[in-house]
């Protein structure tokens, strides 16, 4: 893979202060931003379609080797360890693992990494989500929410049931962020997550 200069950028979304997108582009970040806000069939554009609100460019900076810089940001814990930490190209901040401080550390490393030593070899790809059913089940313990057919891989939607018998379809990762029944407590969810919940007929 050839070395190309470009930009690393970070987008935030007004519907949820903990929802961000970090990416790279060889063009101007504002051009990439416009694509994200209009490509409604893509994962990032789905947020726009669901909420009716567009992404905002929070920060961008130029790098010498854009692929190496992107790899440096993403090849870190907990993205490489926690199931669903990088779901559909989106990063969700939390109070324990993926904080703004963690993001800033990654951006600093990406900005200073420079060109990879062996330019004939491509940098590492983004980490793929790991399937850890036990981890998801442990996070939901005590919530009263039970999966009907296992918790999936953290990203794929599965059916859950609340103590009152309401059944709904949501990803395990999203339910960990909002461990409530969307029928009983819809106000507990942000607009994006609630818009992606599927209520099942009992």
Output the helix-strand order: EEHHEHEEHHEEEHHE
How are the strands of the largest sheet arranged? Answer: 3-1-2-5-4
Total count of helical runs of at least 4 residues: 7
Average pLDDT metric: 84
What percentage of the residues does DSSP assign to strands (E)?
15-25%
| Rg over alpha carbons | 18 Å
Distance between the termini: 52 Å
Give the low-confidence spans.
Answer: none
The structure class reads: alpha+beta
Provide the helix percentage.
Answer: 25-40%
Number of strands: 9
Topology:
Blueprint: E1 6-13, E2 16-25, H1 29-38, H2 43-51, E3 56-63, H3 66-74, E4 86-87, E5 90-92, H4 100-112, H5 133-139, E6 146-147, E7 157-161, E8 167-171, H6 172-177, H7 191-195, E9 198-200
Antiparallel strand pairs: 1-2, 1-3, 2-5, 4-5, 6-7, 7-8, 8-9
Molecular structure report:
The protein is an alpha+beta fold. It folds into two domains: 6-112; 133-200, no CATH class. The protein has seven helices and nine strands, in the order E-E-H-H-E-H-E-E-H-H-E-E-E-H-H-E. The chain has helices at residues 29-38, 43-51, 66-74, 100-112, 133-139, 172-177, 191-195, and strands spanning 6-13, 16-25, 56-63, 86-87, 90-92, 146-147, 157-161, 167-171, 198-200. A hairpin with a 5-residue loop joins strand 7 and strand 8 (167-171). Helix 3 runs antiparallel to helix 4. It is elongated, with a radius of gyration of 18 Å.
